[in-house]
Amino acid sequence: MIYHVSREDDPRLKPYRHVGDAAWLEARGLFVAEGRLVVERLLSLACQEIEHGGFVVDSVLLTEAACRAIESRLDPAWVVLVAEPAIVDGVTGIKFHRGCLGLVRRPSQPLPLSALANTRRLVLLEAVGNPDNIGGVFRSAAALGADAVLLDRACGDPFYRKAVRTSMGAVLRLPSTRIDPWLDGLATLRNMGFTIVALAPAGELTIDEFAATLSPDTRLALLAGSEGEGLSTAAREAAHVTVRIPVDARSDSLNVVVAVSIALQRFRRS
Fold first, then answer.
1. Do residue 85 and residue 137 come from a single domain?
2. How many domains does the chain fold into?
3. Are 33 and 172 in contact (CB under 8 A)?
4. What's the average model confidence in pLDDT over 154-177?
5. Is there a single domain that holds both residue 169 and residue 231?
6. 80 and 67 Cβ atoms separated by less than 8 Å
């Protein structure tokens, strides 16, 4: 159903006044899909069955131009609100949406580790808080062959508006879940046959040395830590091996997104 909204105080716009309030959204089981590209990817995924990666769309807020661009792909059962750009900006208070915003239901059930039984490449994040880094890791992981991203409870929210936008929608299509307790989860992955590879500036092997040991059937879980402290001692000890990416002596480390991307590409070639 498409509704044309002409006033900022229209009650149907009320939820969109909270798109910048992460706590409000999470308490109501929602997240925001922001920007035309992300919303278009959401539309294709929302057509799938939920158990196969689909999402439930609560409503969509569009400008007239955005509505014309994607109207043919809108589900007739959805609530679609169409308003002038000034109204959309005034209600939401944000400027990055390009006339497209969606309020979407978060996955209601966590992904069980048993669902990863047939996967070969995982990315594990410990205490990565910055939403740009969270989104960047998802974008690289989706592009470079990872099957899922697993996060500890100290990581930022992958469904935070900025993380979804930075991922260019990859958060929507790449399976993810939180592991808690963290170390128990790492032990479970080891028992499932994954080789846990910890990225650390002082790793015992270079990435090329480790890649040379891989066989075609090796199942890898790539473990990366926080932007400041890196991996905890406990996480490094839970890994099978620590691996370093050699850098110029004048640099101490790489950004977590860059490091994960380099490692995924190197292991993909192997």
1. no
2. 2
3. yes
4. 94
5. yes
6. yes
